[in-house]
Amino acid sequence: MKEMVYAGLAPMLAPFLTGDATPLSAGQVRIVLETAIRWYFNYLVEHPRILRILAWEAAESWRTFNSIFPAPEEVERSLKHLETYTSFIRRAQAAGLIAPEFDPSFLLITVTDMCSMYLLSIPRYSLEYGEATQVSPEKLAHTREQMIKLVLDGILAR
Fold first, then answer.
1. What is the tens place of the pLDDT at every residue in 17-72?
2. How far apart are CA 16 and CA 155, in angstroms?
3. pLDDT tens per residue across span 80-135
4. CA atoms in the 13 A half-sphere facing the CB of 18
5. Run of H or E including 127
6. Which of 16, 67, 97, 129 has CB 3.0 to 4.6 Å from 92, enough for a Cys bridge?
7. All domains of the chain in start order, with CATH
8. Residue 101: CA count within 13 A, CB half-sphere
9. Measured between alpha carbons, how far is residue 82 from residues 9, 75, 76, 78, 137 in Å?
């Protein structure tokens, strides 16, 4: 699944994720964050089975995932993708565009988990907040944009 996510995001973000020393602008950082969050949220909405697999794996302490994942070439590829994104965050922090107190890996984990946990919890929210279990595309889009705003307002340097 990670490969599908990385492969889907890579072409959109490639111009911004180069490891070179070219200075980043606030606009570039904003575009990367908005694009990545929007794409991942939409990806999960479009692939509900992946959400169910993630929920099951989490409930089972990631036993199946961890037993099939550790092929050395897969681990290396995954770490390379992860380093691309964490390196971008570190560059943005060095440029004063993302608050320096945030750990880049923590940001990536938190944003992806925020998307998946919201979508996994819609049936629960329907009981607690009286919302319909089947959420409209408009409601999902509104929620996605709220997440983007939360992340950008929370981590971008002022």
1. 666 667 889 998 999 899 999 999 999 999 999 999 989 998 999 888 777 766 66
2. 18
3. 777 888 888 999 999 999 999 999 999 999 999 999 999 998 888 777 666 655 67
4. 8
5. helix 122-129
6. 97
7. 2-11+26-155 (1.10.357)
8. 3
9. 12, 10, 10, 6, 30
